[in-house]
Specification:
This is Phytanoyl-CoA dioxygenase. Keywords: Dioxygenase, Oxidoreductase. InterPro entries: Phytyl_CoA_dOase-like. Pfam families: PhyH. By secondary structure, the protein is of the alpha+beta class. It has a single domain, classed as q2cbj1_9rhob like domain (Jelly Rolls, Sandwich), CATH 2.60.120.620. The protein is 25% helix and 18% strand. The protein has eight helices and 13 strands. It has an eight-stranded antiparallel beta sheet with strand order 1-9-6-11-5-4-2-3. A hairpin with a 2-residue loop joins β12 and β13. α4 packs across α6. It is globular. The chain starts with a helix and ends in a 22-residue tail after the last strand.
Length: 344
């Protein structure tokens, strides 16, 4: 590490200690998070890209109050089938693909995140597996994450050019402790973040379903010792963060809800909604799901693995998707999804 880099890091660390960020910057908040946001007036003027299959004003008001929204039966079964067929191809033939996966089992310590070909096939088809950015290989994954129903809502919330940030694909429940996304999934503007949770099957209570605290997107932010974002200079841990969220939500009497949505539904949630993965009480019960994170081109003008570089960009339904610089010629290699017509 050079002297200049060392000095820069010391300056950043000192600034974080003396002037830690304690909230989102009000100047860059999405309009709907501002105190004077008027949904009815906005909807009168908003012109969505696609026909809206739900009551947009109702959904935006629900989001504004609760920090999430469910778009019921918005995704066609055929597209879900195409995507999951690609997932099955990947885990059946991992040696053919350039992709990263994470398996949270002690036998893979100290390196739980590896190239997919470096995991045994039987483990990839088991529990505690997370497939990272599979959408870069799968055209069906790109079309699913930019489905018109999702795009209409995100465009309304951000009122800027929406970009895909990352995706995670699961076979089983994550059992992840309570957290908020913005400290970990970070762009230049932390408040420019939303996520979609797309079930590939009806979600059962014994599968370790997602849970969330209603209205928690408005609660005071956690200080990691150097501000609201987690990094290698933070003095507080993820478990301390989880304890704070559970304790504070209880103090604020925020209801805790369990997500048992159906295949075809979509959950979209706010950057600061506190949520986690419930306990799996039936070890054989799957929870097939596709989780996608989104930002804006203002907040994320580059691929997160190549800070500052101009990305190679595709557009699907007006949403920017940056090609993964680590995947090379395998971008869109699973292309059955090209047959899908988003106007169906």
């Amino acid at each position: 590490m050079g002297l200049l880099t060392t000095l820069k890091q010391k300056v950043i660390a000192t600034k974080e200690q003396l002037f830690p960020q304690t909230e989102f910057d009000e100047a860059t908040l999405p309009w709907i998070d501002r105190p004077d946001a008027d949904v009815d007036e906005f909807v009168k003027k908003y012109q969505p890209k696609f026909d809206v299959s739900y009551n947009l004003a109702e959904k935006l008001k629900f989001w504004q109050k609760n920090g999430y929204v469910i778009l019921e039966q918005s995704i066609q079964s055929e597209l879900l089938d195409m995507f999951w067929s690609d997932v099955e191809e990947l885990v059946e033939h991992p040696e053919k693909y350039k992709m990263w996966a994470r398996i949270d089992l002690p036998k893979f310590d100290p390196v739980r995140e590896r190239h997919i070909k470096d995991f045994p096939k039987e483990d990839l088809q088991g529990k505690y597996v997370k497939l990272n950015d599979f959408h870069n290989l799968s055209v069906a994954g790109k079309k699913l994450m930019t489905h018109p129903a999702i795009v209409n809502f995100l465009d309304a919330v951000f009122q800027q050019n929406t970009v895909v940030m990352q995706s995670l694909t699961f076979m089983y429940g994550s059992q992840q402790p309570t957290h908020q996304d913005y400290p970990w999934v970070t762009a230049k503007i932390p408040s420019h973040l939303a996520a979609a949770w797309i079930p590939l099957e009806d979600i059962k209570i014994d599968s370790g379903p997602l849970y969330y605290y209603i209205g928690s997107h408005k609660m005071p932010k956690f200080n990691f010792g150097n501000g609201i974002l987690y990094n290698n200079r933070s003095t507080k841990t993820a478990l301390e963060f989880a304890d704070y969220l559970d304790t504070k939500c209880a103090e604020l009497k925020l209801p805790k809800d369990t997500l048992l949505i159906k295949r075809g539904d979509v959950l979209i949630w706010h950057a600061a909604l506190a949520h986690g993965g419930g306990l799996i009480t039936n070890p054989d019960q799957t929870r097939k799901s596709y989780v996608c994170h989104y930002s804006t081109q203002e907040a994320l003008p580059f691929h997160r693995h190549r800070f500052g570089q101009t990305p190679v960009t595709e557009y699907h339904n007006g949403v920017a998707i940056y090609q993964n610089p680590d995947f090379g010629d395998q971008e869109n290699i699973l292309n059955e999804g090209e047959k899908w017509d988003s106007k169906k």
